[in-house]
Amino acid sequence: MRNTHDACHIAVPAKDLDEAVEFYVFGLGAKLARRYDDRVTFDFFGDQLVCHLSDDVPEEAVMYPRHFGVSFAAAEDFDRLLRLVEHRKLRVLAGPALRFEGTAEQHRTIALADPSNNVIEFKNYDDPRLQF
């Protein structure tokens, strides 16, 4: 099915493309791939994230039912992200926290909100086989 050359495509609304670039590139370290008048495309941890200019953005950052993010297989990568979030003072919606403590599904998590109130969750499972 999917190989290392494939990318998951995620599209979200953005009220301001400059703010989106500031958050995703200079905040999270995503790579800017393309920019047009109505959208901006990023290499978001190996997947394609597109922020489409829109007036229809969430009024507030709410985790459920819609969010996206990355499940890190390596604890070191999650730790590196936590340090980046703290250093760059990114907007944290929830966490960092430990979920399902004491179970096979135990994992660490943090949820961020971008400038358009899209919610991004980052995780690291103790057992990386359970990230799917």
From TrEMBL:
A Pfam family matched in the record: Glyoxalase
InterPro entries: Glyas_Bleomycin-R_OHBP_Dase, Glyas_Fos-R_dOase_dom, VOC_core
Domain of life from the UniProt record: Bacteria
Protein name: VOC domain-containing protein
PROSITE patterns: VOC
Gene3D superfamilies per the UniProt record, alphabetical: 2,3-Dihydroxybiphenyl 1,2-Dioxygenase, domain 1
Lineage: Bacteria, Bacillati, Actinomycetota, Actinomycetes, Pseudonocardiales
Transmembrane intervals: none
Domain VOC: 6-125
